[in-house]
Each structure stands twice: as C-alpha cells, then as structure tokens.
Amino acid sequence: MAYPSATQSSPPRQPSVKVILAAADVSRVVDRIAHQILEKTQGAADTVLLGIPTRGAPLAKRLAARISTFEDVAVPVGVLDITLYRDDLRRQATRAVGPTQLPPGGIDGKRVILVDDVLFSGRPCGPPSTR
Fold this sequence. Notes:
The chain starts with 22 loop residues before the first helix and ends in a 16-residue tail after the last strand. Strands 2-1-3 form a three-stranded parallel beta sheet, with helices on one face. It contains two helices and three strands, in the order αβαββ. Helix 2 links the parallel strand 1 and strand 2. The chain is flat, with a radius of gyration of 22 Å. The protein has helices at 23-40, 56-71, and strands at 47-51, 77-79, 111-115. It is α/β, with parallel strands linked by helices. It has one domain: Rossmann fold, CATH 3.40.50. Helices cover 26% and strands 10% of the residues.
C-alpha cells in the first residue's frame, strides 16, 4: 500500500454550493407575499409598506410594484431606520443612523406593514434571553 508523501497534497476541497432559491423562485415568493398582503388587507386599501434598511427597503418597493401589477393599486412605500433599536448593537460595529422616510401622506390612519429580510443575517429570532 502506498502512502502519499508529505510533499504531495490533495487538491483543495471546493465547498459544496446549495441553491435554496433561484431567481425565478424568489420572484414567485415575492408574488406570493404580494398576494397575501392583498388578501389580508382586502385589496391593500389604506396600506403602507415601510422597508427596514438595508435589504428590506428594496424588497418593500418590489412588493409594492407587484401589488400594483396585480390590483392596479399604488401602495405607498417608505423607509424606517431601526439602527438604534437593533438587538445586536453590542456585537457589531456601530452603524451610521440612516434616514427614516415616510411616504407622502404619512402613516396616520394607515395599516403599516414592516418589510425586512430577516433570512439574510441568519441570526436566530426570539427574545435575547434565548440566545
């Protein structure tokens, strides 16, 4: 039986890539969420989407565009910066506080839906005491 010498090395192992959602899958998921918003809000009347930076803001815009396509309803979109209220401020470097931009007409008397991409960070959800 031959053993590899110390000078021989095996090729580096490539990490296996597992695609969870392809681009078409993400589009379908966004469409499903938009439909859920329409169903739960009876047509998105008096509804406002507030995206939480960084990736929740473009997702809110994308959802509003899909809702407009399905129902011809313009859902106002804004941005809500929650930097000072994050539960991980002690573990991360300080982030600059960004602007909160409410949509024209404000949010008073509206149904506000917060949009975020919580799957991106991979942090567990739940109260801080359970982490």
